[in-house]
Design brief:
This protein is α+β, with helices and mostly antiparallel strands and about 160 residues long. It contains five helices and seven strands. It has a domain of about 100 residues.
Length: about 160
């Protein structure tokens, strides 16, 4: 059975990214996974309200009537979700200055016992080519945190 190829418009609709106004959707997220203590301790240590947490073995919230699933691992995440056609590299620089650098010692300590990831995602609709430049200073900071980098760019332009 051959499935038909989706058009860009159908893909945007399927992904829930058809914003209709040509504005890029950008997400920058710091996450910790696979640690064995209460995620609230990370929130307190960083003085940040997470955008998501989960504890291994606890039920994952889902729609009514859906089969119940259990969380496989404990996690904590803090995410910026920004709709703009600014360069995503500029957003990353702001995230580093406002979120990472003021808490670098705490982040470094947390990352000793947790898998640390910086995720950068752009749903690209319009504007200039995506621009992401990781400076040496940014890479040094991520190295201090022992952080992996996850980069995804989805071109949804017509």
């Amino acid at each position: 059975m051959q499935l038909p190829q989706l058009s860009r418009a159908e893909l945007k609709n399927l992904l829930g990214k058809d914003n209709g106004d040509g504005v890029n959707v950008n997400r920058i997220m710091l996450s910790f996974m696979d640690f064995d203590y209460d995620p609230d301790l990370i929130s307190q240590q960083l003085d940040l309200q997470p955008t998501g947490t989960g504890v291994a073995g606890e039920p994952i919230p889902g729609p009514p009537g859906a089969p119940q699933q259990l969380q496989d691992f404990t996690f904590w995440k803090y995410e910026w979700y920004v709709r703009t056609n600014d360069f995503i590299g500029d957003l990353l620089d702001a995230f580093m200055k406002e979120v990472i650098l003021p808490r670098l010692d705490e982040l470094e300590a947390i990352s000793v016992n947790a898998e640390t990831t910086l995720s950068i995602t752009q749903y690209y609709h319009d504007g200039n080519n995506p621009n992401l430049h990781l400076t040496r200073d940014t890479l040094k900071v991520l190295q201090r945190m022992n952080a992996a980098i996850d980069l995804d760019i989805y071109c949804l332009a017509e």
